[in-house]
Every structure is written in structure tokens, then in C-alpha cells.
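Throughout our pipeline, every protein is held as a single compact record rather than as scattered files. The record that follows is passed on verbatim for readers who wish to inspect the format.
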Amino acid sequence: MSDHAAGPATEAFVAHRNLLFTVAYEMLGSAADAEDVLQETWLRWVDVNQDQVLDQRAYLVRITTRQSLNRLRTMKRRKEAYVGPWLPEPLLTTPDVADDVELAESVSMALMLVLETLSPTERAVFVLREAFGIGYDEIAAAVDKSPAAVRQIAHRARRHIDARRPRAVVSASRTRAALEAFRQALETRDLQALLDVLAPEIVVVNDGGGIKQAALRPVIGAEKVIRFLTGGLGRTTATVTVGPTTVNGNPGLVFRLDGEIDGVMAARVEDDRITGLYYVRNPEKLTRVESETPLTLR
């Protein structure tokens, strides 16, 4: 490829890189795999004759979607062999992401888990349509389906997601307030305060990946959750510190033991009470948390 072609190709890729990363991440739930997809997208993109590309953004999204679909199918085998519950790799994002309510919900840990229940094609169609507003014709080209079939897939996926997503999107400030109340109650071992901030039906999902100790099944119910959390803190002799962060576009918490990161926690909040806690301890999913600056999505 000539240097003349490389310049515009590079400029277009860089201009749309955040969008492409977010598409890949929402489809895969793994930042590491999303980066690999972007590398594969780049290698294919630089070989494209730019004079024949009418819409660079659409073309790049199409390549990224196809590479993500290929990787999704291989990831399925990895997840089947995974020890304990699987959670998406947490992303530390800039606080302004939370201001875009739709974007923040689309990358939230709670919705990312729901996306895991879709087929690869359903997930691709849902992400492209609902999170990015891409037209049915463009999506059809990306997933090798007819526009009519894509409309049906989108309707089916939306109905499936709507039945499982949070009843209402809670503002970042209310989520932050609930997490701060939770943090203070946990640090002071105030059991009544914990009961006040946790919904009776709360679910805790703990991902250690077989590397770090973690519950092998979701913990359900406020009293069981409190025993689980306080029991874990009671067994450690390390100094535990908990600090606020922005994870997957929403307020979250970072837990440290003697200054070293132990895990990242995201939350699902409804009616000012926490209905879900998602705690990632698997160190293989935390390398970016320590080594990279918060991301601006899109």
C-alpha cells in the first residue's frame, strides 16, 4: 500500500478508534480481546482501496463487527471452562461518560451481563442498533443478513433485554450516593446501615477466575450478602481501603489490600438501594485498571 493511501487510512482509523473499541468491547466484554480485534481491523483496513470506500466509519464498523463475531465464537469455549461466575473485564472510564446516560447504561456491568444471554448475532445487532443507532442496512452488511432479518433479530433481542435490564436507569449521583453509604457501612461494620442500603433481593456476583478466592455461585439476599462481605473482610489481616472510581461508565469502587489492588466493584442501583454488586478479583482482568488511564468511549 502506498504512503498516499496510508495517510487517510490512518487518520480515519484514529478518528474512529474509540467508537470501534467500544463496539468490540460491548460485543466481547473483554478489553484485551477488543484490543486484539482493533489490531485485526487495522490490518484489514490498511489493505482496503480507500478510493472505493464511500463511508469510512461504516466500513470500519463492519470490519470490527465481523472480527468481533469471529472472536465471540472462540470465547464461548473459554467461558465454558471458566471457574466460577464470569464477569466482563472492568473498564475505568472518564467521569464524563456517566453524563451520556444511554452510553453509560450500554457499557454497565449489569447490562453487559444480560448481553451474555444473547446469541453472537443477536448481540451484534443489539449493540449496533441500540447503543450506536446504526441503520439496519449497515448492520445487515456487517452481519451478513438481510435488512428484514436484522429488523426481526433486533426486535427479538430488544424484547429479551428489556425483560432483564434494570427497571429504570438511575442517575450517576444517586448510584454514587448509594455506593458511598455502602462503603461507609462496610468499613464501620454497621450491619443496620448495610441492611438499609442493600435491597432484600440483592445479588452479588464474584469473579476470581479460579485464581483468587471467590464465591462459585451468585450470593443472593441481603443477610447472606452481608455475611459474605463481612466474613471476607474479617479473614484478612491486610489493611483494606476502598475508594471511589468510575467503572464501565458508572460509579464504582476499587478495593485495595495493603495498597495493592484486590478488585473492582460495580453496582446496580434501583430506588436508591443496591440490587446488584459485581466484584472482579481475577488479576488477569485487572491489569488495565492499574496500568492505563481512564478511557473516553466513542
